[in-house]
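A reminder from the course coordinator: this example appears on the midterm review sheet, so study it carefully.

Given structure:
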């Protein structure tokens, strides 16, 4: 029996192996998300920048790797990856990682209230393969190194404070971080074929220099259901490695993006093309999307990667490869393409993040149309997003 047949029988059908989307249903979603018509309508032909968007939306390029950001003398970094937005007076800031070896780091674009670029700067340098990360409630950016024994670096989007390593958050192949202000913890994904999901509890909320690192534990089967957490004894231990200290740790097939909102953590795994949802209060794990749980040949979302969301419950999931799309998973469990970048077939979509007012979406094509880390393109999309301020 192949994986698709097994999962459809266990998750969608009998529920004998999995919860069958019960957590998804409790959040007014029903079963794991299925293909359908998106709320914004079909994608139109590519615009002048090669971006396919629904009617009423438009795109522009705000930065290109190796070129000066408009109106500045700042060269935009190569291989743009994870990103986030922050309020900045009457404007905002978009932060973007650089997934380059040895000279990675992160940069920030500053925007005026009318969307004009009014500055750009480095906020982190000299680090290694900075992939994804996450914003904190106190206004810093957690930039994650995707290398063996990598670290989380906490940096200041506003440029007031220097960046600092946070080794207490573990030494492993970091991918994304998502802060949970309700429980005062930070969740961390691991980009390994048998990666773990971690939870860091700072000794003092707002200070990540010390605290306790736990790893999620559960049997490999059932696929979903109740979970527990166990402490990692020595998170900074290079000899054993953070990921190998708790035998009961649950393994995931390539942890990618993470997003927290309203008591739930949403995270993606690329090896099985899943979006997971973890109910933090109930400590229950479920599947929000799996391409093997859609009708054969119908899955619009493949190559799951970075993920972000909106207050109305919509999730936006970027593709690493796939069809170079950002797909939307609605609150009622419908998955559909929201945008597509054409002519960038060797690239991946990275860093989706909304401006604080929800009216603009930022993202990058990491390697651009020439499939080179020196050819990344960072875009902005504007339009009638649901739930914008």
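Designed residues:
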């Amino acid at each position: 029996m192949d994986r698709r047949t097994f999962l459809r029988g266990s998750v969608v059908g009998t529920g004998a192996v999995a919860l069958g989307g019960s957590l998804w249903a409790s959040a007014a979603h029903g079963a794991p998300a299925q293909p359908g018509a998106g709320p914004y309508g079909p994608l139109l032909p590519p615009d002048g920048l090669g971006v396919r968007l629904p009617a009423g939306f438009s795109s522009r390029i705000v930065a290109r790797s190796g070129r000066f950001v408009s109106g500045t003398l700042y060269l935009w970094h190569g291989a743009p990856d994870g990103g986030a937005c922050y309020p900045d007076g009457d404007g905002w800031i978009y932060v973007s990682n650089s997934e380059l070896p040895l000279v990675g780091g992160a940069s920030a674009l500053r925007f005026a209230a009318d969307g004009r670029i009014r500055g750009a700067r480095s906020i982190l340098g000299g680090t290694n393969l900075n992939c994804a990360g996450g914003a904190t409630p106190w206004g810093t950016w957690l930039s994650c190194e995707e290398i063996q024994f990598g670290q989380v670096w906490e940096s200041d989007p506003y440029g007031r404070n220097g960046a600092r390593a946070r080794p207490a958050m573990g030494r492993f192949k970091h991918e994304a971080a998502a802060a949970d202000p309700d429980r005062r913890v930070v969740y961390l994904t691991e980009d390994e074929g048998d990666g773990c999901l971690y939870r860091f509890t700072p000794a003092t909320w707002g200070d990540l220099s010390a605290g306790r690192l736990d790893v999620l534990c559960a049997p490999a089967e059932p696929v979903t259901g109740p979970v527990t957490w166990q402490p990692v004894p020595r998170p900074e231990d290079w000899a054993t490695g953070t990921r190998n200290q708790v035998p009961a740790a649950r393994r995931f097939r390539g942890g990618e993006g993470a997003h927290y909102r309203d008591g739930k953590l949403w995270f993606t795994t690329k090896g099985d093309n899943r979006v997971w949802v973890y109910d933090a209060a109930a400590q229950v794990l479920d599947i929000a999307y799996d391409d093997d749980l859609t009708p054969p040949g119908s899955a619009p979302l493949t190559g799951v990667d970075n993920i972000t969301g909106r207050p109305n419950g919509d999730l936006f999931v970027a593709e690493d490869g796939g069809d170079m799309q950002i797909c939307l998973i609605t609150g009622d469990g419908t998955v559909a393409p929201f945008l597509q970048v054409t002519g960038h077939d060797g690239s991946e979509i990275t860093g989706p993040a909304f401006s604080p007012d929800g009216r603009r979406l930022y993202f990058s094509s990491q390697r651009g149309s020439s499939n080179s880390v020196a050819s990344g393109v960072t875009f902005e999309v504007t339009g009638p997003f649901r739930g914008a301020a």
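Confidence is low (pLDDT under 50) at residues 1-29. The domain at 23-382 is CATH 2.120.10.30 (Neuraminidase).
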